[in-house]
Amino acid sequence: MASISGNKQSFQSNSSQNNYLVPFILVTSLFFLWGFAISMLDVLNKHFQDTLNLTISQSTWVQIVTYGAYFLMALPAGIFMKKWGYKKGILAGLLLYSSGAFLVYPASEAQSWTFFLVSLFILACGLAFLETAANPYATVLGPAESSERRLNLAQSFNGLGVIIGPLVGSKLVFSEHQLSVEEGFKSVQLPYMIVGGVILVIALFFLRTPMPEIQETSSAEDKAAENASFSESLSGLFKNKHFVLGAFAQFLNVGVQGCVWGLFINFVMDAIHITKHSAADLLSLGMLIFMIGRFVGTFLMKYVKPNVLLGFYSLGIVAALLVASQVQGQPAVYALMVFFFFQSITFPTIFSLGVKDLGKYTKLGSSFIIMGIVGGAAFPPLMGAIADNTSISTSMLLPVAMFAYIAWYGFSGSKVSK
Predict the structure, then answer these.
(1) Among 2, 63, 74, 196, whose Cα sits 20 to 30 Å from the Cα of 144?
(2) Global pTM?
(3) According to Swiss-Prot or TrEMBL, what is its membrane topology (predicted)?
(4) Which of 346, 361, 347 is nearest to 416 (CA)?
């Protein structure tokens, strides 16, 4: 029996607490996989601007279909896992991920922008399954009092993926000369074929590895509520104010991520007049800083409450983006590097704070917070339109306002009402 205090529930498993180590390592590997997938979007954004002669706002369709898939699939993923469990949810996600990656090949052969976007959408449906499963799974594979730290530790390895994505894009996708439409499409085939194969191998590991299916038990009152209708469950879930505010905070957080990460290459090329290869390398450096920030944040949570650290990190982001919007040259790029450091802990910390003490609503609440990732689809086109009509520096003011709210959520809105 693994007991989790504070959540008014216990989680039972045939395995002891120590047997959570291997499952936790496997789940942690998933964070690397979607880190790579998401950071590759930032390369694709600039790549298709050049090869298909798209505007900034038009190229953000890669963000729209990817992050939009989270909105459409997160709730079905949660319902799937409620019936079939975490392990089958992860396997379903891996199969969708690999299918989308493999479909990039025929899409590129057809030289179809629409087919390519469909491939990304299917891949992202897999990401939605993985995130809906892995985030809450990581939080319950151990004591409740360390759930935020544990999720931040797992998500730290997401940083390895986001570092490698731009490097792969710089070496395999970008070219020194102007590519034709055919060459532009073919250049994305190899990276996604490799990824599809790797995903299938990882799926095999999950299939053959015993994974503790953590069962939720609760009070007699909670057990009776398990048979409640979906609408009644929604009503009970949305009575948790910290969850509602957290879902909106995640919507804004991923919106900022989609904006700043997606337009980073454009921003630094405009600020310091470098090639897209060099800009992609700088993006990888920013992702390295992002990963370091995760490890530093995880360490600091031993001494600082997660919600307080989220508040201060968010204020750091507000300051960094204000500087980036108002100055030119190298200082603007330095400011964005500071942004990467402070944004490192925001996703897992908002997630953990949002699902805290949800009890029997944890899986459903997780689905809604993952649905908030649609912010990555909603805001990049808006920021791209601002950049197209004013300047990319001016467009940086949009995420400033968004993170002002997240700072408030960290300090105040995330507190659980008793």
Answers:
(1) 74
(2) 0.73
(3) Multi-pass membrane protein
(4) 361
